[in-house]
């Protein structure tokens, strides 16, 4: 079932016309940009997509528009993360009707659950879903880290087909890899800086935010890691780290990464530079930094024929 | 403006018919129970009301039904906490139309804002609201503690009329009291164990969860604190701590308090023992403990003529 | 046994001649300053005393010199906090030989213990001590908060006579007060901003850092709280909060409080402005702020005849 | 300078005769066990060595005895982590006199420093040391994570020659690798589960606790990673994860890893099963689990000729 899920599945940024309104044309544009870049799937309504900041109307529109524009060229994964399971199920129903291939959910993120409660929540959710479910470990936002034991127990549900880990903790990732006894269970990593090494050590791919900007780079890196091509890995890793360093750390916000991705995307003509409230785009002086840094990055990517 | 807000304003538990469906008759029952107990206001859709776990339909129904049943006998405060400002505003509009007196909002709780971003978020929200706003500091759930400086800056917005602090940190509470230079700015405290002392030191009242069970106890304590009646304070504080100790610490869940309030409320005939997903009611053996402990508490409350 | 411990027991700052060398004459000076101010005891080698930053030679000298200068006029409490129980015991032996009245210890603060391990640690320590022991809850530094249950169990050891809580969480403090069934068990609070309210609610006193600067202010506040004299409490609380606001929050360091107390003490002629490595005194511009703020504070204290 | 530091440098467990007394003969035994296993260096007085729990006498004895037994066969690194810089320097002096090759220090771990203060602390320490210094990032114990920027600035000090990262966060590790512009700056990783992948991605080796038990396994893994020998990596990674899973997670203590290493070492005849206070060895039933699990591990290691 999850065999189809591997490689680079970017967490698609959400194109907006203001700090709340969806940009329908922007959705078409970015979907084509990603597929032209060779990505293996598209994930909407994740953290990078600012899912929980959007109105439900905007979330529903985004699901439909993305499905419409993908036209089944690559798998579509839809985030249904919510504090209310009823609203998660509503989004999942629409995702199914729109032709999505799987849904993705973090733990509920207001009340702090224990591991047993987390297990019961996910098991219940998976029972009630008609699409397969990816678990999404995101402790910095949700205040809870799914234990390896909980993940192992959940991996036995036939409708739970994989896990995306955004903890950046590869000890945890390796423990999952070792402990989950199911060959068709897909393990994806969030942070792009460690996508190569997790694939080298048995991971199935990356949900890499930078692929919104330069999809080919991350696709090539995934392929190099699968092929154990260390010469290429070394070159591309430097470029991936350059992007993370020059674009995601401006301004010392907790959301510098999100502001950086969207700011750079706007300079590359991929979408407007609006973030949904409560986040805001970079200030002008910060955008000047992004602009200058982007020029450096583009020079290096051109040298490697990656743009 | 906020002069009307003082005393005991319980965070009303949400009566349910299942783990998702609102109990309309239950709303009537608990509203009357609280008003009969002498409370000075009612706050729906707070943490104790499991707000973010409810579907939006249930939240809307709850607002309307509560307003309908209060019939303007006491002020109604409505929680509009959300990760999406659009959805907060939708709830606020309905609250206003239903006759509510104020709204209450925690910071957005998925993305971690900085203090400046938090200030801008609240200022923007207050600008767009038609009802007055209470800030709600709830760091254990939202991952952010509003700084004293941010609260001081926000207190200058004419539409922001008070703050409810659930941090349990009274150094913070005293710093707010000292720093906010506006006599009509209302400071409420969350944890009932420290309601008396914060009122003694200048606070305006408490959003005390235990008042769902025994409203008279907390109303009497508020009055004793206002009157500096230490003989009464001493007696009642023992009972308030007995309730917290015997009802809120069973089972070592993060949500032992919520399970305890609702479990005890069901035994007292106030509402059913359903919690909204992802939380669940206490197990049978835990309910046996609650039942036994409740008997002890009732003996003591009867001795003080508080039930 | 602990009946003798009540009131204001300042956590004495450690006078230094450099960032590591003890100022023997400074010890005499500050001891007399505190006793002249009416304090009910002196606590050396606490957090405010920068205990763990000092060499063991300096710690030993400080114990001996303080005892020598106190001359039994008030009780002496000695901090023996350490990650090595052997070194704690060495300090305790010297404290006893020097004439100290009790010792004080936080949990070990490198390895994170569980509650059962914490209980065993303290029980073992108390067994091996010849002086009575105060528990010291200091979660921000030690990464562990002693549970109420652990404190209750430890309160049954005949050699454990009290607890100092620096958590700032008065829900916790009230739970201790309610749960510890021993009239001669002394509960002290750390943060001076909440000393009055904890004494009003049954606490035994405060380990107030500001008493290094203005001992009379905190002694008067303690007396006012014991007497339920709210007129005085209101006036003094404003001054106590003014001190905390104007002296302890400069420069946004984690150690702004420590830098502020020592900086102000140096301006008041109480001791030199050296902090032990790794901390450093305020920069010149920060000292200018402290100096200006101190003038304001002194005007208000003079109006109340407190200096 | 740091060219000599690479490969497997185990954080040596400290052999004890009780919960406080050093086992001199045990030191000889384990030193030879490690060197016979092919390790590239030995690190004493780290977290695994329970450094901060030992009396200073025991620490001094351990430094001397280890140096005496190594007889310059491999480099010796000595932990000088302390809350008092004076005591760190005392240990460093003895380390130098005993013939150690480098010292290692975490940040001070009682007071929480800011990044600028952390920079100044380490720069000052490096200035005053006569041996080269390894930085040691250990946020779970010290409450502070050294920022990449701080590490970059510190890497410019000629006496700071490397960094050991125990954060388990490989995004951080990759950022260090990318940002530190000095070829002879050695980057070591703590958790053994991710040693292979960090070496594949440019790391210099591992400070792997499990090497106390099975040094050859980790040495072979290091060599396989350097050689990009994925067939071997796959086999050994499974064994490394089996050890971590079966030996380090018994009993749900924060210190399960430490208890597990020492418990297993005692069963393997490497040293006694004493931990320094405040930690304690596993209970009997937990040791039974360790014993059973160890048998499974040994079967697998024998199959691979690693014991």
- Determine the CATH superfamily of chain A: Aldolase class I
* Largest sheet composition of chain A: 8 strands, parallel
CATH topology of chain A: TIM Barrel
Count all strands of chain A and give the number. Answer: 8
Active site (chains A, B, C, D): 136, 164
Protein name (chains A, B, C, D): Dihydrodipicolinate synthase family protein
Keywords (chains A, B, C, D): Lyase, Schiff base
Organism (chains A, B, C, D): Maribacter hydrothermalis
What does this structure look like?
- Chain A has about 300 residues and is of the alpha/beta class.
- Chain A has a single domain (about 1-225), classed as Aldolase class I (TIM Barrel), CATH 3.20.20.70.
- Chain A is built from twelve helices and eight strands.
- An eight-stranded parallel beta sheet of chain A has the order 1-8-7-6-5-4-3-2.
- In chain A, helix 4 links the parallel strand 4 and strand 5 (about 135).
- In chain A, helix 9 (about 215-225) packs antiparallel against helix 10 (about 230-245).
- The radius of gyration of chain A is 18 Å and the shape is globular.
- The two termini of chain A are about 35 Å apart.
- The model of chain A has no long low-confidence stretch (mean pLDDT about 95).
């Amino acid at each position: 079932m999850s065999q189809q899920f591997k490689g680079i599945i970017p967490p698609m940024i959400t194109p907006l016309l203001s700090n709340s309104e969806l940009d329908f044309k922007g959705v078409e544009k970015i979907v084509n940009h990603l597929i032209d870049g060779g990505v293996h799937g598209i994930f909407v309504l994740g953290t990078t997509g600012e899912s929980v900041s959007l109105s439900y109307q905007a979330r529903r529109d985004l699901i439909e528009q993305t499905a419409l524009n993908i036209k089944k060229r690559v798998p579509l994964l839809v985030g249904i993360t919510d504090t209310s399971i009823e609203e998660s199920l509503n989004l999942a129903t629409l995702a199914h009707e729109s032709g999505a291939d799987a849904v993705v959910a973090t733990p509920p993120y207001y009340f702090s659950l224990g591991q047993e409660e987390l297990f019961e929540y996910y098991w219940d959710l998976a029972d009630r879903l008609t699409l397969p479910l990816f678990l999404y470990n995101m402790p910095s936002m949700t205040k809870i880290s799914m234990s390896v034991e909980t993940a192992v127990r959940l991996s036995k549900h036939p409708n739970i087909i994989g896990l995306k880990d955004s903890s950046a903790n590869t000890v945890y990732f390796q423990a999952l890899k070792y402990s989950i006894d199911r060959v068709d269970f897909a393990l994806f990593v969030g942070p792009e800086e460690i996508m190569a090494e997790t694939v080298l050590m048995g991971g199935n791919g990356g949900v890499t935010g930078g692929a919104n900007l330069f999809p080919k780079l991350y696709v090539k890196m995934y392929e190099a890691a699968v092929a154990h091509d260390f010469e290429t890995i070394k070159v591309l890793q430097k470029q991936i780290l350059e992007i993370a360093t020059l674009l995601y750390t401006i301004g010392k916000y907790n959301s510098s990464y999100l502001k950086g991705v969207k700011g750079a995307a706007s300079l590359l003509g991929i979408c407007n530079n609006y973030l949904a409230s409560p986040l805001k785009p970079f200030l002008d002086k910060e955008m000047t930094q992004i602009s200058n840094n982007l020029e450096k990055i583009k020079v290096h990517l051109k040298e490697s024929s990656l743009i």
